[in-house]
Each structure stands twice: as structure tokens, then as C-alpha cells.
């Protein structure tokens, strides 16, 4: 996180805790100035290639639209290699994108009072974080629980399969956000938001249930807090891109100017036209030669 001003006397800390066989990462950080509203919380991943060709196409749009596709249809779909389980049942949702869903549980930050013993939650919601187009695409499934099984990486969340009911992905906006693949290996995805209450300056504590592995692919994960102004949120990528493209244009302009000064060329000079600079040739005559006059008796 970055701010206009910072407190050099305070250093953010983190702890690794254990609760109910789960690993919890506890972050403690300071916000030197009020933020928002609105306030947005993102998770950022590095070295995760959602833009890989095989990964991007590993989903079935009709299945996401709620259609109860039979096993033969899923077996020949683009969800490879996660189409059917060993028993022949279809995965729902199928494909690599859904199976790799970011599954860390991010709780709302808590503002710590001066005594450090009590905390006041700053409530953030996971509603209205997905695009409207994604909400219109992903519908409630028409499968029955006995027809499908969870993807392999969803087994912890659904240890008994879908015996207790199939999740309604039409209401799972975190799933929708994840399914919209990123173009670059380092990306941020919206996880929580608060549109009505400012985040007051002070020290905060944030607990995250750590489930999503990053060491396997030499990546990292982090949390970002941001707000928005009348010109939008912070996006340094576009600024950097504009500066780079502008610099290239300036360099090319300087090179063309130098070339013009060294070897100038008159604009509209007819001597450069092809028919004014033709060389004598032994080739066949062109359409501009006087064919009939040259062979007149």
C-alpha cells in the first residue's frame, strides 16, 4: 500500500496463526490518512499466467450459462484436462480456470483502538464486484447434485461433493471476477468494497485464511487497498504506456527531422516519378511506347 504521506516510525507486521486446522495470516498496518469512500480491496498475484492459451480456453460457456450438458458433451468440450472425474461424472464447473479459483478467505479489516485490546470492524462486502456482463452470462445451473462433482481443488470446500446442494454461481461474484482472465502474469482482482463509509486513519488488523498456494509456481500474493477519484482509480500501467509510446514518437520524429536536414527531398518533385526515371532496357516494350509508329513501313 502507498499513501501521499507515511509514518516512518511504524512498520507493518504479519503473523502466522493456526485455528481449526487452518492457517491464518494476520496483517497489521497503519493508514496515515482517511480513505474514501469508496474503498476497494484487491488481491494481487504475481507470476500467474492466466493468459496461457491452454488455460484461457479451458471452460465451457454453455455449462456456465446453466445448461445441464450430458457427459458426452462435456467429454468433448474445451474443458480439457478437467472434463470428467474417474467415475465418468462431469465436473461442475469444469476446466482449469474454475479449478484454480482463488480461495483465500479475506475478512474485513478491523480498526484497533488505542488500548489495542478491542477492535471495530470496517465492513467490506463482496457484492457488486463483478462486471454486469459476467452476471448476465453465468446463470444458476439446471444440474442435479447426483449428476456432477466439484473440481479437484474444490474438495476442501465441498468434502461431501454436492450432497448438500450445488452452489449457485450466479450469486458468487468472486467466482465471476476470477473467471475473467487477466492479460498479464501480474494482476489485481477486486475482492471487497465499501461505498458508503470512509476508512479512517489509524492502525488496522486484517485476518486472511491462507489456502491458495503460490510457492508451487514461484509467485507471490498480496493485498491492496485503493480508493477512487473523479478521474478513476490508480492505474500506473496506462501512464507508463503513454510515456513509453510518446518517447518513441519523439525519437522517431527527431530521426526523420535529421534525415530531412541531411538529405532533403523536394515535396511534389516530378523527377521522382517512375516514368521520368526509367532506364533503358532490353525488355519488352511498355504500354507507353509507340509500338505502331516504330514499325511503320
From TrEMBL:
Coiled coil: none
Keyword DNA-binding in record: no
Pfam families: CDC50
GO BP terms, alphabetized: phospholipid translocation
Alphabetic keyword roster: Membrane, Transmembrane, Transmembrane helix
InterPro entries recorded: CDC50/LEM3_fam
Principal cellular location given in the protein's record: membrane
Membrane-spanning parts: 237-262
Keyword Transcription regulation part of the UniProt annotation: no
Membrane topology, from the record: Multi-pass membrane protein
Compartments in which it is found: Membrane
Similarity field: Belongs to the CDC50/LEM3 family.
The name this protein goes by in its record: Cell division control protein 50
Amino acid at each position: 500500500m502507498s499513501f501521499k504521506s507515511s509514518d516512518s516510525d511504524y512498520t507493518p507486521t504479519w503473523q502466522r496463526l493456526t485455528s481449526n486446522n487452518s492457517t491464518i495470516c494476520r496483517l497489521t498496518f497503519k493508514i496515515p490518512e482517511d480513505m474514501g469512500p469508496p474503498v476497494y480491496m484487491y488481491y494481487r498475484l504475481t507470476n500467474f499466467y492466466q493468459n496461457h492459451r491452454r488455460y484461457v480456453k479451458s471452460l465451457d460457456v454453455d455449462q456456465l450459462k446453466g445448461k445441464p450438458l450430458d457427459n458426452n458433451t462435456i467429454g468433448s468440450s474445451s474443458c480439457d484436462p478437467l472434463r470428467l472425474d474417474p467415475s465418468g461424472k462431469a465436473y461442475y464447473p469444469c476446466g482449469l480456470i474454475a479449478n484454480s479459483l482463488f480461495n483465500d478467505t479475506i475478512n474485513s479489516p478491523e480498526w484497533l483502538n488505542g488500548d489495542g485490546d478491542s477492535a471495530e470492524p470496517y465492513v467490506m462486502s463482496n457484492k457488486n464486484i463483478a462486471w454486469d456482463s459476467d452476471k448476465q452470462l453465468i446463470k444458476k445451473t439446471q444440474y442435479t447434485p447426483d449428476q456432477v462433482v466439484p473440481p479437484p481443488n474444490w474438495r476442501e470446500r465441498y468434502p461431501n461433493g454436492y450432497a448438500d446442494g450445488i452452489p449457485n454461481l450466479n450469486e458468487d461474484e468472486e467466482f465471476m471476477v476470477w473467471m475473467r482472465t487477466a492479460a498479464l502474469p501480474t494482476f489485481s482482482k477486486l475482492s471487497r468494497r465499501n461505498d458508503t463509509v470512509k476508512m479512517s486513519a489509524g492502525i488496522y488488523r486484517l485476518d486472511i485464511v491462507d489456502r491458495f498456494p503460490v510457492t508451487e509456481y514461484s509467485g507471490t500474493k498480496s493485498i491492496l487497498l485503493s480508493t477512487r477519484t473523479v478521474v478513476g482509480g490508480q492505474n500506473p500501467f496506462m501512464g507508463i504506456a503513454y510515456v513509453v509510446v510518446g518517447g518513441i514518437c519523439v525519437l522517431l520524429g527527431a530521426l526523420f527531422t535529421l534525415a530531412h536536414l541531411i538529405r532533403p527531398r523536394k515535396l511534389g518533385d516530378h523527377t521522382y516519378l517512375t516514368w521520368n526515371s526509367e532506364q533503358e532496357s532490353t525488355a519488352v516494350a511498355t504500354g507507353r511506347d509507340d509500338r505502331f509508329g516504330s514499325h511503320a513501313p
